[in-house]
Amino acid sequence: MKTAIKLTLTISTMISMAAPAYSAQWGYGEGDGPATWGNISATCEQGQNQSPVDIETNKLTSAKKQPLAFDYQGQVKDVINNGHTIQVNVSGKNTLRIDGQDFELKQFHFHTPSENTINGKSAPLEAHFVHANEKGQLAVVAVMYREGERESAQLNSIVHTLPAKAQTITLEKEVNLGDLLPRVKDYYRYNGSLTTPPCSEGVRWLVLRDPQFIPKNQLKRLSSTMGENARPTQALNARLILE
Q1: If we measure between CA atoms, which residue out of 75, 68, 69, 67 comes closest to residue 93?
Q2: Which of 104, 149, 160, 233 could potentially form a cystine with 54 if both were Cys, beta carbons 3.0 to 4.6 Å apart?
Q3: Are 37 and 100 spatial neighbours (Cβ–Cβ below 8 Å)?
């Protein structure tokens, strides 16, 4: 029983760290932005495997990567504005299988502009799908969004009515979570961290190559609600990015 309780607490702690909490201690402004996060958690300043990173496509390491096996069967539960991002909580069975393990989708959230960059260029929007396995280890699937005319009905259901800061809303429409991902799921992989304090490391990062598209009005609605909430790219150090 003690072991089960300890495991539950470990998983809950990791998930809470992966979801940026509403806090006045840190933000993205001049006085509380990423340059100051080391005052909250030393790992943000001293960590050697920090996220996000710039993915230079001429410096990738070829590897025989396993395909990402998504099984999203659940639904969106609610949408939260925690003061740092728009976070979408989910319910039901939503799993990602990789490395012979099942990772359960806990939530996804957005950053404007993107945090990870490709060849030094950011996308206007990036979504992070945060998964955890039974040990509390995290796997984050990053989806880049480009501005385009094609409207995503699933994304529109989420973006249409966004909560004010520190507020939560419950969606009335069903959202097919699988439709939020691009059809082709080839990806870049690297070992990284949370992109917000406490910047804990040991996170599997899976950045999908193909972008999704978002109309200008949806993008504007998200960006005006969240503001710019992207941590600058961090040094790669001794890490490799796999393709």
Answers
A1: 75
A2: 233
A3: no
How far apart (Å, rounded) are the C-alpha atoms in residues 134 and 62?
Answer: 29
Task: Return the active site residues.
Answer: 84
Whole-model pTM above 0.70?
A: yes
Alpha helix stretches (DSSP H) within the chain: 2-18, 42-46, 153-159, 216-226
CA dist 225 → 142, 212, 219 (Å): 20, 20, 10
For the stretch 88-129, pLDDT in tens is 999 999 999 999 999 999 999 999 999 999 999 999 999 999
Structure tokens at 9: 């607490």
- Residue 143: beta bridge partners? 127
**DSSP conformation letters of 19-53:** SPPP-SS--SSTTTSGGGGGGT-HHHHH-SS-S--
Domains in the chain: ranges and CATH: 2-20+61-226 (3.10.200.10)
